[in-house]
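Lab channel / #folding
Pinned by the channel admin:
"Please post every new chain as: sequence first, then the structure tokens as a reply. Keep commentary short and put observations after the output so the thread stays searchable."

First post following the new format, from NK:
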Amino acid sequence: MPWIIGIDEAGYGPNLGPFVMTSVACRVPEALTGADLWQVLRDAVRRHDEPDDGRLVVEDSKLLYSGNHALRDLEKNVLAALRPWHPGGSLGLADYLDRACPAARSELAGECWFAGTSSLPVLAEPEDYLPAAERFTVVCQEGEVTWGLVRSQVVCPERFNALVDRWGSKGAVLGLSLIELVQCNHSQDDDEPMHFFVDKHGGRNTYAAMLQHALPEGMVLAHEEGRDRSLYSVVGLGRALRLSFEPRADSSHLCVALASMVSKYLRELLMLEFNRFWRTHLPDLKPTAGYPGDSARFYAAIKPVAKRLGISKAALWRRK
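Reply from TO:
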């Protein structure tokens, strides 16, 4: 039963707050290799533009995260989809991080704003997502679709800036996070084939050198390297491993869309704590999402407080 692994990110463009990249893995019967999982799981899963009939929505987070109830809508669908990975009930943000991105805990512990005390769900009520979660679980069992590792990488501004300084491009943040996720999934203790689907990074078409660095015990073979797709296989690993980089992969592969949603949800949870911290010092300060256009307003307001607390600009403001 091959593994299908989707990888996508959230928060690459902001000046404030962390960058998050996530991988979501599921295992499918051999006959479903290459199948459209939206169709396979259609009794439990729908697209955002289909009628709301109780199924959970799996979609590019940019399409799902909109309107007056954006975070609540994103949260209820993420928690419904993640139900197979956790026993349910309330969960603290710190506990979630221990499960989904243990490597990030030490980095986040150094952030002045991080407490990890948020209780999940933050806005949705259990009745908003538990029926969809139960339906999703049953349909997956019927289709012999099982869910594996969900793993996120979190890069906060200080390390983000250090990587940009070292490598001369913020693309290094994407590349190194991708390497960590590929290595983490490959290290799982089985020999089933793995096919990674990755949302393409900007205009980049070549990934062979990056993948060779990530998997030095294997040999990376490039089959296609173009605007529409870059396709690789890796031999010598003891398992078949393929990687496809595609533009808008979150619209073509359900696992990539889920990775997009999980990345966005985790970034939004972290931004809630970010805004909460600064509003303890400036109660009237309007929260920010950290993106250009609003980030300068927010940073100008917190700058005197940051100076008083001994927090450098490099620890808050991403230069690219």
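NK: The chain has a mean pLDDT of 92.
TO: also worth noting, The chain has one domain: 3-272.
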